[in-house]
Amino acid sequence: MWEPDLKILRALALVLLGTSLALADAPITFELDTPRQAGSAALADPDTGLVTNSAIDIIEHNAGVWLGTGKGVMFSYDNGQTWLRYDASNGLVSSNLSAIFSAPDGRLWIGSNHDEEISGQLFSLSDGVSYTDDNGDTWVQIDFSPGGQDIEFVTGGNRQVFDITGLNDPELGGDWLFFSAFAGGLLASQDGGDNWRRIFPTSADSTQFYIPGVQPSLRNRYFSCVADTAHQDSVFMWAGTAAGVFQYVWVKPEDKFYSRSVQAVAFCDTCTVDSERSLFIGGNNGLTRGQFTGGPFDTRFESDGLPDAFITALGYFWGRLLIGGLDLGSLDPSLAYSDDHGETFTDITPSFLTGVSDSISSFVGIDDRVYMTAGTAGLWVSSDTGLTWARILVDSANPGSALNAVNALESIGDTLRIGTDSGYASVELDASGAFVAPPFINADTADFGETLRRSRRVVGIRTQQIGDTSYIWAICLPATAQGTAVTLQSEDGGANWLGRLVDTVMTDLEVVNDTVYAVGWEGIFFNTDGQLTNITPGSITASGTSLAGDSILTLAVRDSQLVFGTNTGMAISTEPDSLRTYAIYRANFDTLRADLAINYNSTNTIIVDTGGVRVGITGDFIPAMDVQYRNGAPPRIWASGRPVSGGGNGIAVGRFEETELVDTLGNVLDTTVSLRWRGVNLQHFAWNYAFDDEVVFAATDAGLLMKDMAAPDSLEATWDTIQFITEENVFVEPGTPVYSVAVIDNYLWAGTDDGTVRLDLFDFTDQQRFHYRDLEAPPSEVYAFPTPFRPGRGEEVDFHFTVEQDATVTLDIFDFAMNHVATPIDNVFFPADTYHGGGSSGAQGITWDGYNDDGDLVAVGVYYFKVTYSTGEVRWGKLAVIP
């Protein structure tokens, strides 16, 4: 017999995460060629009665108590008075369970494993996950083979499913499920488990996982996971790895930047987001609001009243946001405004906007007037912030002239610089906005020959001031098929032009102080002395990503703040006057890729406060995580830590804390929320948690611990220990490890190696133990418990075996390579009986202290033991030693 396998599996994982980091160097992994599968038809009715004393998980499912064990799933609908079970004989793929979870949709999930002999040695291999929709009458195993989900490295060795979790969020995909599979990584589903995919915190982690012949990194080895339902606007999931805790967050499209391309940008100095001035971003998928320095973002769509999702132009004037849009289906342009910073919209599309050539390209404000460029529809002015418009003709004598098709506009004092379909024009305005004199027009460009004469369609204009000299820059696109793209420069007010960028398609111009920036399909160009220098988009990098391969579609500037809109996202400068320090944003349309993934570990969670240095997460191997929900207060996040190459055992709690940003006068400018971790137990580690309001219960290697987080000393390393002792019985010896715990209705349930105990939640002295008396067990059943055990800390392991008829018995222990280690029982006579330890059982305990025959402490690892009877029988079992 092998009971319970989960603890050995976890112990083996611990061994492989030791200072030698054996798994990273030379692990043994196995992929099942033909995964074990259960059919979807009813296989058998459940059996009755307990068949094991070890429960690795306890959950509530469909008003019953369910135990995940090394001998199947056991459940009771009468608080333990009667038990039913499913195992490999009546439905399960395998009996040895390592995880069990009741999903919000009523589906019950399990992770199972089976033993298989490979090259003469016995290994425990993962079957992946299975589910039942009918309380166990039928079971379905998820097929990860190429003929099924086609996800490799899910089943097999070192891929045991240690945790399953999930939540329901209809606005963010529906029924979410996750499971942690050790070296198999973290897998997720958004449809209740019908379809799965492996997920990663970063693309670099994904790349590392799939490198041929290389084992998963510590960041890619997952032990625990728990969904967090306390955040109504997003999906949170916490995962424990060999490199600490990962916080995964998925947010709704309306709560993030959600456009693939960015065509327009506008700044608002008077409207704020979290005390920061607002930034409006027009993309191909709606209007996004953020801050001058970036996020947080929110996006509005056509469903929110926006006339069109594709934004061509933005302008903010005197409390009103003007929005130019384009229907990509009909190619009809639109115009709308918002007076509440982009919350609601009013469609004011004028009748003169009739086709794609009339698309709005820009808005410019002068005094109390707004000017709008609308391509072939021309140049328009409004004195009531967009409600009514009057057309301005550049060539009043010829209304149909290409000079009246306006694409670009710049205001310099009282002067308008105008880019048309037939060249450049400028005009001086009086106080009322009327022309002081007829416009100056240069539509010839004859100095550049016939080719450039055909490239007189001006789509961008900006003026650069260097000392006393004004340089006018113009982006020109071909007006005929024989033309070419060119960027021109004039030093004499537009009378004469020099070609600076020929055969280079540019899309926008902006000026910062004395520097002009030109952007386009081939990169970013800038100039401070009359000569343009190229900075390719790939040279703008941030957090491992760059604009390499991007076409720059627009550029906006405010107070030395630069925003580049591209065909794949945008880049926002994070330092004034810096061309190369940026935050790069790209929309995440992949609903299974997290929008945010943060790693917390034993190094970056250490804090220093008024009390000195405070330990955060104690160790980077995280075997257990859970969320403590609180009425009207932020949840607490609990993590159990164990050492990897450093750190130590312990329990840490993560708390969401508010921090006020206060100015020099004491005014609160803003409030931010951050997660801070605190080690509240620096000796023991937990396998599971349960909660009753402010009280936390931890199933640990030292027993069942309890802490009231409402108490004044809740953050200190003090815990109460719950003993499984009544006036009449010692149910479980003090100090016995507890592997599972759950609060179900008015009962507290705890799973140990010596039975499952039910306690009255309001009177811990009211206890009942559900214990499997295995006197009638098959004689072939032999096992050791507790396992894993820690001989280096004085722990011993007991052995269970049955002697069918009087015989002498020898018990030998072998290491993983089958080298003899010790003989705890050497030719000792035993009368016919069943022998097992556990203290309270009343039977003789046969123990081993973890030392070999030479008196040396054995190494950490997996061991086998052989029970030999003088009557000829031989039986085998296994155990694990941990630090």
Can you walk through the features of this model?
This protein is mostly beta strands and 883 residues long.
For the record, give the distance between the C-alpha atoms at the N and C termini, rounded to a whole number: 24 Å
- The overall pLDDT, averaged over residues, is 86
Number of H- or I-type helical stretches: 4
Give a count of the beta strands, DSSP E runs of length 2 or more: 69
The whole-angstrom Rg is: 36 Å
- Sum up the overall morphology in one term: elongated
Helix content: under 10%
Structural class: mainly beta
Name some characteristics of this structure.
about 900 residues; 4-stranded antiparallel β-sheet; 4 helices; 69 strands
Could you provide a short overview of the structure?
By secondary structure, the chain is mainly beta.
What topology emerges from the helices and strands here?
Elements: H1 5-16, H2 22-25, E1 47-48, E2 57-61, E3 64-69, E4 72-76, E5 84-86, E6 96-102, E7 108-118, E8 121-132, E9 140-141, E10 163-169, E11 174-180, E12 186-189, E13 197-199, H3 203-209, E14 222-228, E15 234-241, E16 244-251, E17 262-273, E18 276-283, E19 286-291, E20 294-300, E21 310-317, E22 320-326, E23 333-338, E24 346-347, E25 362-366, E26 369-373, E27 379-382, E28 390-392, E29 406-412, E30 415-420, E31 423-428, E32 440-442, H4 449-453, E33 457-466, E34 469-477, E35 486-490, E36 498-502, E37 506-512, E38 515-520, E39 523-527, E40 533-535, E41 541-542, E42 545-546, E43 552-558, E44 561-566, E45 570-573, E46 582-585, E47 596-600, E48 607-609, E49 612-614, E50 621-630, E51 633-642, E52 650-662, E53 668-681, E54 686-692, E55 695-700, E56 703-708, E57 720-722, E58 738-744, E59 747-752, E60 755-760, E61 763-770, E62 783-785, E63 797-803, E64 807-814, E65 820-830, E66 833-835, E67 846-848, E68 861-869, E69 874-881
Antiparallel strand pairs: 1-5, 2-3, 3-4, 4-5, 6-7, 7-8, 8-9, 10-11, 11-12, 12-13, 14-15, 15-16, 16-47, 17-18, 18-19, 19-20, 21-22, 22-23, 23-24, 25-26, 26-27, 27-28, 29-30, 30-31, 31-32, 33-34, 34-35, 35-36, 37-38, 38-39, 39-40, 41-42, 43-44, 44-45, 45-46, 48-49, 50-51, 51-52, 52-53, 54-55, ...
